Amino acid sequence: MTLAQLAGSWLTGGGPAALVDGTVRTRSVAQTRAELVPLLPRWGITRVAELTGLDIIGVPVFSAVRPGAATLVASAGKGLSDDAAWVSAVMESIEVAAAETFACADPLVGTAAEIGCGYHVEDLPLHPVSVAADSTVLEWTAGLDLVTGAAARVPVAAVGLRGWTEQRWQPPLFVTTTNGLAGGNTHVEAALHGLLELVERDALSRVGPRSERVPTSPAAVGPRVAALAELVRDAGATIELEFLASLPGTATCVCYLSQSEMPQLFGGSGCHLDPEIAAERAVLEAIQSRASVISGTRDDIPATVYHGAMTLGRQRRATAGARAVPDPRSLHGADVAGLLGGLAATVTERTGRPVIAVDLTPDEAGFPAVVQVFAPGMTPAPEAPRPTADGWRGP
């Protein structure tokens, strides 16, 4: 995708990429935080709490609290700095708030064939009791095909999060989750991170026997990951990293933290165009999961976690050394819109279906941009007993 293809659409903000605190962003986290602070009341966020000191690892973890939420009240965030963790928590809270309040003002009504959506309704995550099919008359909201730049359609019932009671009753049609939901300084930035999350979920869903995973050591991945692993080990915990089979041009990594004094096995996962960023995200998410359980602030953590029911009954063995690490990729100066378009094209090549972005940003807000990306035909990760930033799931 080029800037020329984006001209005239709502998906704007492409330009040279900058690696900011280990991820692709268009401005510094300090700048983003300064712009988010006055917006907290507008999104119903009443408190941003620092959880870092509750754990002995010392990696920044924050929690953004939104008491009026219909789904998740406390959203967690992590990062290499206080600013990065603060922004991460607030952005997640805003993403969920935007998803909860999404409404399509002018839906198109018809069947999948009449709409010409380019995919089957069954390619989206259907609810177990859903009766939706290509012949079902649905309401459709507008989106944007990230490969062609053309208008595209997604069923309204598949977009956002359904936390409020509807005025009318009908059997649930789709499973609505935070998969593909992302916020950012710009729409392109948000869409890139939303699509990377879908690639991550797809890779997690395809995990087979342990032999199919490629263990590696933090030192083999890169200096930032090695530094994080040293903090974990200094706290007396054990860390494991594994790379999974992922979409060509991407790297998906999972991390496991365990400690003899705690019954839980904490996990995290991450996907990126650069393997070190993917691994760094996995480690940070595992650390965030641990801090969230220690703090008890998340309202989506089952009580069984505190009774030792989530333990595997033994600690996993630490990885002795690296067998393989995906080739590193330099992202400095790369065009963000180009990165997004290239990734979307690879997904479409695999699935044979469009990759669609839906704008969830309220008109009056403008910043931050909130986008939900849909990749019909990609497999979402199954639910599993592991705490992460977006709930309990993983390999």
UniProtKB/TrEMBL annotation:
Stretches that traverse the bilayer? none
The molecular function terms of the Gene Ontology recorded here are: transferase activity
UniProt superkingdom = Bacteria
Q: Which UniProt keywords apply?
A: Ribonucleoprotein, Ribosomal protein, Transferase
Q: Read off the PROSITE patterns from this record.
A: YCAO (PS51664)
Does this entry carry the keyword Ribosomal protein?
yes
Which InterPro entries does its entry note? YcaO-like_dom
Q: Which residues form the YcaO domain?
A: 77-395
Q: What organism is recorded for this protein?
A: Micromonospora halophytica
In its UniProt entry, what is this protein called?
Ribosomal protein S12 methylthiotransferase accessory factor
